[in-house]
Design a protein that fits this description.
three-stranded antiparallel β-sheet, globular, five-stranded mixed β-sheet, 20 helices, 462 residues, alpha+beta
Length: 462
Amino acid sequence: MTWQCLSSTPSMFARRASTQAAACGQSSVPVRTVLRTTLTRRNHSKSLSGSMRGISTATHFYQNKQLEALASRPATRLTLRQLVYFGKYMNEDRLIKSANYVRTELPVRIAHRLRDMQALPYVVVTQEGVAKVYELYWTAFDKFRRYPEITTLEENDAFCNFVRELLNEHKWVIPNLSLGLSLSSPYLLPDRLDTFMRRMLVSRISRRVLAEHHIALTEAVKSRDHSSGSHDNVGIICTGLQVQDSIERCASYLRKRPHDSEEDAASGVVSDADWPEIIVDGHKDTRFAYIREHLEYIIFELLKNSLRATRVKHPTADVLPPVRMTVVASDNDVYLRISDQGGGLISPEIKSPSDLFSFSHVRNAGRLADARLGALRSLSSSQQGMTATVSEQIWKWRQSADRDAPANGVNPHPRIGIGLPMSNIYATYFGGSLELVSLDGYGTDVYVRLPKLGKNLEGIEL
């Protein structure tokens, strides 16, 4: 066997290794163990030519000392307050320190997730979508660990461009990972699947926060906005985020979106009624320091679900009952309650509201629905990918005014079941919570709690 053959993707290794494992009756052996058994039978040193030493092959992946070293390090978790304090008094020296923190921290966090993927059974690694994520993570890890120290602002500008490119390359991680883990659901216990998926998504959010925060700080230093412009933003964090403004912005977007005529027909909806009114009450002047993108994604997805459920529950109504959103601020937390009359959450497929957060078909049978898998495949192969933000959904709707010709062949808002789990992860990332209460036959109350003081560390699971 030549080294050209050994430089194939992990999926090829796993398929080859699976034959050996199946012969031994080892259907649940972690892929890393099986591959090591297979690969150590080769005499690597004799056939390794000098020209191949710089290539990142799957063999290097499984026996890489750099990966072992970085995966053994703990992640340096930060609080929202630390991110604000460090970025608020930004200068060139602090910006260089920020760049090198991102440069050295991100490969550590990626290494932890690579180890998680290596521990999966080979049948999972070979599933559609998982191998692609596996390769994206390894490539990013290899690039980051080789990146030289940053010492000047010019080098920092180049580093920001490098990070932007990687962020763009990883826009297909969520749909591919969701597709692969959905297809793997029959081979993993629900707890293991959900734990793995949560760790992957939380880690992804953490890396994007650090990368995008540093890029925003760089832009502020270059434009000097930090000293002469608005003081409400420090990097990607809005220090005086007004909750009502975010609610009204999301509500305006959602109430202007087109009805999904095909899904309406499938659900028995025949009314042309406008979307429900959204009523905001409580402490409407609440402000606190938070990442706007996270808060608005949570609000957007929860309101989208409430509006949709209300429309389906009242298919012939001329005027749909309103959705009510209450804001309450305490000394330590900000609370949001969304109440609708959409009939509740319990169905033959869902036994408990918390099952809607699960990626396992055992807890949520819809994970293996053909329509959902088809939407994930379309999204995985689309040009825009998915970043789990409000802006990308609004862009799709605006680009898809012609309902017969959606952008890039993808439905402008495909129902792939990722919004609620991602909202839960965003809410809990800095120590908050999201709870669903189903009033079966009537409606649903959703309670969101977000820490107000920014003292909680990132919720990364190591």
